[in-house]
Each structure stands twice: as C-alpha cells, then as structure tokens.
C-alpha cells in the first residue's frame, strides 16, 4: 500500500509526516485543548461565589485569603514535583493522574464545611499544577515545528476555560440552587478531558517519552536566563492570581452586581483567547524576540489597573478590557519557556523551575492583596502594589523575550 509522506517546514524545522501521524497529532491536539479547558474554572469560579460561600459557611476574611492563596501554593509545590512524577510514570500517565486528582478535588470541596473546601481545593489545584508544567513539554516534543501555534491554542483554551468559570458559575448557582452544585459541576469537564487524554495516549506515539522530557541532568538554578524567565513568570502570575481572587469583589464594591462582575471578569479571561491564538504565534516568530510584545501588553495592564484604582465605577467595562489585555501576557510567558530551551529535557527543567518558584512567589498575591485591603480599609493600596509590580514585570519580560537559550 502506498503511503504519501508530507513535509512540513516552519520556523526552520522540517517534519516528515504520514497521514496516520497527522491524525494522531490531531487527536493529541484535541486532548491538549480539552485538558486546558479544565485549568482555570476551579479558580475563576470561586471569585464570583466567594461572598455566598463565606455567608453559608460562616468563615472569616482570613479563610477567604487562604482559599484564594491555596492554588498558587499548590502550583509551586506540585510544579516542582511534576518532573519527578513524569519520570517515574511517564508524561501521559502523569497528566491522566493529574486529571483524576482535579476531578476528585472539585467534588470533594463541595460536600462539607470550610476545612473540606480547603482540602478539596488543595487536591484539585495540585492536579492543575502538574498539568501546567507538563503540557509545555508535550508541545515542545510533540509539535516541534508548531510551538508558537500550539502554545497559542493551548493558552487560548486555558483562558477560555477561565472565562467560562467566571461567567457561567454564577448562572449555574442560580440554576442548581447554590454554590456547591455550581462549583462541583465542573468535575464533569475534567472527566471528559480524562477520557480524551486516555484515547490520545493510546492512539498516538507523539507524546514525549519520560526519558526525553524529564531525564536527570544539569541544573538551571545557576543559569541567569532561567532566573530571568522565572522572575518574569512569577510576576505575571502574582498579578493574575491576585486579580482572579479579588477583582470581582473590587467591581462589586464599586456598585457592579454579582452576576455582572462575573461576566466582566469572564471577559478579562476571554480577551486572552484571540491574543493567544494570534499574538503568541506572531511573537514566537518575531526576529527581535518577544520583548516588545510583552512590554505592550504590560502597558495595557497598567492602564486598566490604574483605572480600577482611581475611578472604578467610571467604566468597569473599559478597565476589564485593559486588565484582560495585560493578563494575556501569560501566553507569551509560556511561549518564552518553550523558546528559551533547545530540548524537551531543558523545557521540562525550565518549566518546572519557572512555574515552581514563580508560583511560590505568586502565592503571596491574593494573600497580600487581601491583607492590604483589610489594613488600608480600601482597594487603593493593594492596587498600587500591583502597579509597582507591573513595572518590574515589564522589565524582566523584556529581558526574558530576547532570543537566547538556557
């Protein structure tokens, strides 16, 4: 039987592919997208429901701060552990295990009181953390000629899931009668992604082998560029998780209703979808690197945050759009991780380091934002803190975007 070979050339890479491999790659791409849809609703769905949760559970502001801080703490700890799990179980099995943990945690956290909510959130976000680190490795090794495109598609799906979590969860609460079924219903999406991932792992040989992606070797802890990428990633994550945890409440205190705040913050995440699909691939190809794109998005974020600080009720829609553009830099942060490493092994190391240490720093974001709000009795001081960090983020992002390798 004659089999037609196809050659694909992109960004200087040549890939010879058969129709069977094309189909297998498409199956894996679908699994990546469905997996990405699960990585934000567990977090973004909490913000619009937080006041209702606290009233029902009788919890304090400290408990709310812990709840909004847990995701980034899990991202740090589980992110650093991801390469070890992948080396022992394999990339495909590790992601499947993470999806099981995510679904179980989503169900667990809605069945009992405050402590169980925290415990379930811990389990769910640990699963998310593992996936965060391992998907860039899958993209680097399974789609080497399409890193910018696949990173953009993955990030767009991730941000789209975040938008759905923020916008749809309040509607689910109204439909099903409370925050518990609203938040727990997202476990269904995790099950669908798990089934897709199992099919992809069986149906394609394109997933990276554990030895390829996570082999033991040189450490990046003394690599200057690796630390620049890590600091940049940590700063943008600090801003993003402080925003996801508290910006809906900032809007509601400015006179926006709960449902409108959820929709507006859903728009913040939704804006990142076209940015990820179009800007990330363009930035990946840019001869001058990704720095100018990172700086541009940072300026938008600075403008939106300034608006929320000085005149939040003047135009919540405009501020949400600008903040959404600023948070879209996440897609470029993931693109930078893949482009600053030459091999899958180095991608795994850089991804684990940037996301592990980066999220460890970012874990302070929601907690410090809430603490400064309580101390200052308002939103001006915590928002001013974010403005200062955005300036530093732009500097490190410009450095991380230069065309160099760890």
From TrEMBL:
Residues annotated as transmembrane: 20-39, 60-83, 89-108, 115-139, 183-204, 225-242, 262-280, 292-311, 317-341, 353-373, 379-400
CDD domains listed in its UniProt record: MFS_NIMT_CynX_like (cd17339)
Chief place of localization: membrane
Entries under Pfam families matching the protein: MFS_1
Compartment(s): Cell membrane
Membrane disposition: Multi-pass membrane protein
Coiled-coil features, chain-numbered ranges: none
Stored InterPro entries: MFS, MFS_Cyanate_Porter, MFS_dom, MFS_trans_sf
Domain (Major facilitator superfamily (MFS) profile) ranges: 24-405
Protein name: MFS transporter, CP family, cyanate transporter
GO molecular function: transmembrane transporter activity
Keywords, alphabetical: Membrane, Transmembrane, Transmembrane helix
